[in-house]
Fold:
Amino acid sequence: MKIERIERPRAVIPTASMADIAFLLIIFFMLTTVFRKEKGLKTLQFPQAEQTQRIKKHKHLSYVWISNRGDIFVHDLPTDTSFIKREFQQLVFEDPQLLTMIMADKRVEYRYVNMVIEALRSAKALRVSFRTDFEKK
Structure:
């Protein structure tokens, strides 16, 4: 006696919408990804302060890094005070609420910090803050 085989329906995965799903995933990751702007200098030792205030909003913030040898960096590029003046004039024009964070090493001579402050002043970037570490007692 011959037994008839029962044919089961084959599982089929529809591939017509795979391209739509892939594009939606690409758009999702493009919209939710936040790119890091600057890496900064990793070897800096910041001066200590008795009181510090954390800046929570990084939206209107720009950084100037000064190494212990007096090298000045803006946007991870070595620069001089004339570039700082031009760059921050443009940045302040685009964002009047811009806060400039000076990330200076505690061993740097003050004349380098003063040169940066004067360049920022001439660029009308008057909102300036200094990065410090909390002094532990």
